[in-house]
User: Fold histidine kinase from Amycolatopsis decaplanina DSM 44594.
Amino acid sequence: MIRTYLTSVRRGFVLAALALVSWLDLLLELVGFCLLCVGLVFAYTLALEGTRPRAALTRRLTGRWCGIQVEPPYRPAPPEPERERDGWYRDGNNLFKRSWFIKWTKRFEWISDDPATGRDLGWQLWNPLAGLLLVPAVLLSGPRALRLYGKWTRWWLGPRPARTGDGWIKARLKALGFQMGLFALSAAQLGMAIPTLLMLIGPAPLFPAMVVAGRSVTDTLRREAKNWTGVRIDRPYLPEPPFPVPRADGMYRHGRQLYDTPWWPARLARWRWVLRDRATWRDMAGAAVNSVVLLLMVLPTATLVFFGFWGFLTLWVLRPIARWTDTSWSTTHWFSMIGLPEATTHWQALALTPVTVAAFVAGLFATPWLARLGARFAKLLLGPTEASRLGQRVERLKQTRTDASVAQAAELRRIERDLHDGVQSRLVAMGMKLGAVEALIDSDPAAAKRLAAELRQTSSETLTELRLLVRGIHPPVLSERGLGDAVRAMALDSPLRASVNGVLPRLEQPAEACAYFAVSELLGNAAKHGEARRVSIELGYDDGLLRIEVTDDGKGGANAARGSGIRGIERRLGAFDGTFALTSPLGGPTKATMEIPCQLDPDASSPRTSTSSETA
Assistant:
């Protein structure tokens, strides 16, 4: 017993000494952050990575000495950049000759976006205090103090389950922040609108550039309104004018005037574009109106929350400090401003505490509703008009028409190549062997029989290849049973553990074929590039919209800009005015969402039924 106690004391002192080193790690990270502010990104990354070995040592000692196993909570490190065939390294739309910049950028994003990094910083701040408390605690209770410290360490440094939602106070504080953010963006939009209008009086050629700059602020408001409140505000602007194209004589035309260079036609086209777009003037009107309305919405809630918080602070923090320091200034005159008596004693402070709590709760109560209401009001002026919807629709149709033509031409080339290299070659070989059979049937019947047997085998292989080719063009199960059963049959043939959920009615055959081959491409990518083992496919149809979600547990890191297969899926869906969204963080999972507007098949004689879930 005494030996166990002495061992616990010794281990407690070691853990306490190790805890004091956390403040040195925190100081090192603070220096790295200061260097980050002046552009030295790698210094902050090195500081964060350099402190993780001390955290790993604490985890090992906690498991060995305290009996509390603590698993590392960090996300997997990003892979090394891969050199492309031309010798360059690609990151998005940027090319680099060396990989070090991409590597440090990815590592900075990896370590700064990891929630465990923030918990490490909190642990480094509070762990020395816990270490100082551990010394007397381990002297008093021995192993019990060590176990308690192990639980403390696991809470900070161990993995935590993902939270499904925020608490009542946190959710409403965030909603209040969203209100203030929408007002700030509206004020910034107004700050851009005023000099833009002044450009009409002064240097008019800068007016289009100022309008485009102001639209970037307005787009930020639209994007954050969707992220914060769920209210979607689409961009209402007419498509930008194309760059002037020279005529046959080399001149550039704008209206009835010809120019030698495209400079003036391009400037005049952009000037006309921003002036004739109603959304330009609606943005400016919305900047003024939204700033006033959003201010009136956020002012009462912010005032009540600030009054409640500051009142509680003055009652129970500033008032005792003023009393202990014997200062003459009052800390509770805040209450006298609204007709309430000042609190000079603890009983008076206790009586005023419900007032501060009620003000704080009342201010937070309506913040989610007011945030959504403010976003909906902003949508009235910042949303799309009928003219902009029509213009965007025309541009969308032009792009999808081009994509559909490209996809159709690529599919025809594939079919032609498969027929030429496969079936046609086998048929030519069969014709030559038939000629040899005719020549040998009288002189060498045995050889003719062998050739006939080879012809039978070749004809069977040709028929199989032809069936596979036809299945690649349009699978028979898709025509016979519909998309749901066709996807289930595909899942059974997949090397992955695939589960298919959902029931679909018979849809238009072109839309079913598009969705089928898109799912086939995603399954192939998950098995070949994603190194996945399981995949889940969710099927659903509601109100004229087919929705498919494909989620795999692979390594992630899929990039739509670099994958030709993903680009092919986007072209297929674009021909049906569909959408494709891909989420694939490093380490997985990869989730692809496809939405295709389509109607029910009018030729379906009776609805087909299938199981709602199947695992292959």
In short: Confidence is low (pLDDT under 50) at residues 605-616.
